[in-house]
Design goal:
By secondary structure, the chain is α+β, with helices and mostly antiparallel strands. The strands form three sheets. Strands 4, 5, 6, 7, 8 and 9 form a six-stranded antiparallel β-sheet that branches. A four-stranded antiparallel β-sheet has the order 11-12-10-13, covered by helices on one side. The chain has a three-stranded antiparallel β-sheet with strand order 1-3-2. Strand 6 and strand 7 form a beta hairpin. Helix 5 packs antiparallel against helix 6 and helix 5 runs parallel beside helix 7. It is elongated and about 85 Å long.
């Protein structure tokens, strides 16, 4: 690049240098900035740096000047503070729906939001664990396309996959495509789900977004608005465990008072709940009966029990008996 062309990029280059190579612990002097610009083929007079700094401050950069025999400069405030970036890195790293490859790419981009020195703290904060992550690299594009279809009131087409015993994702329904009217994206148990209307059976269904492939937006308008208008999303999410749906019934639970918070966190504060005595509570909760619900109960041990209806009590006992039989 010609010297004159480089001069036109001087302010942009200076901005990038300050953002990437300075922070409160690592200011750069006027001479340092001149040297960094020279590395990029941009000649700068020491006297011009002060004027350039003023221009960048006018542009909106929060640049601190440490006045000394030679002034020192550093960026004091960025769009993201370091604790915020650490939190975002943790979220990206732990999210199951983000592939390991995409996690690394996103974390690398987050590291560029701070200085090279503080970025090292983000790198130390990344711990690759053996937790399960999706292998579908298209999930970001799936989510984006679903949002677009929601905004444009359009149906979508996709192929839906499941795992087989050989640890391979294979298409469901013999590879037959799904045509669904999307109505909502739900975040549940660290996964994205699409809630959509299936016109072939005239009902709402949910699908794991990371198991969708070859998605396309169709020109046909969405169907199922009348069904969706009657649908109570809040009740659905409270009653459903891990997106495993079943028949919804009102269940009476009797539990230790110490589990009050656990029950309210799961079902919300709108449920009927009252103390039976100083150590025991009674709660009426709407539940879609499933093995996931029974698993939640089992995890709470002897501190909780199903009081009614009797049919659900019997189903839960059969569930426990089947587990015990497999263990003998």
């Amino acid at each position: 690049m010609a010297r004159l062309e480089n001069q036109k990029l001087k302010l942009v280059a200076l901005r990038d240098i300050l953002l990437s190579k300075t922070d409160e612990e690592h200011p750069l002097s006027t001479a340092d900035l001149v040297e960094e610009l020279e590395k990029l083929g941009i000649h700068a007079e020491r006297k011009s740096i002060y004027t350039d700094i003023q221009a960048l401050e006018y542009y909106g950069m929060d640049i601190i000047t440490v006045r000394n025999r030679s002034n020192y400069y550093y960026v004091a405030h960025r769009e993201f503070e370091l604790p915020e970036l650490k939190t975002l890195v943790d979220v990206v790293q732990s999210a199951r729906f983000i592939t390991e490859k995409k996690s690394r790419e996103l974390i690398s981009k987050l590291e560029h939001q701070t200085s090279i020195y503080e970025a090292k703290q983000l790198s130390r904060n990344v711990i690759i664990t053996n937790r399960s992550k999706t292998q579908n690299e298209n999930i970001f594009y799936n989510v984006d396309m679903i949002h677009h279809a929601l905004a444009e009131d359009k149906q979508i087409r996709f192929f839906y996959y499941e795992w087989n015993a050989q640890k391979q994702l294979v298409p469901r329904r013999g590879g037959k495509e799904y045509i669904i009217s999307p109505w909502a994206l739900i975040w549940d148990n660290e996964n994205y789900y699409l809630l959509g209307y299936d016109a072939s059976v005239s009902m709402l269904k949910h699908y794991r977004v990371d198991k969708m492939k070859r998605m396309q937006e169709l020109s046909e308008p969405r169907l199922g608005k009348e069904v969706m208008d009657r649908f109570d999303m809040a009740s659905f999410q409270r009653a459903t465990f891990g997106m495993y749906s079943g028949d919804e019934v009102m269940v009476k639970l009797v539990a230790s008072a110490q589990l009050t918070g656990v029950i309210l966190d799961r079902f919300g504060t709108g449920i009927t709940l009252r103390p039976l005595d100083d150590s025991t509570i009674e709660a009426y909760v709407p539940v879609k009966i499933s093995t996931q619900f029974f698993g939640w109960l089992t995890a709470l041990g002897t501190g909780i029990q199903i009081a009614s209806p009797e049919s659900v009590r019997q189903e839960y006992m059969q569930h426990l008996a089947a587990i015990l039989k497999r263990c003998l």
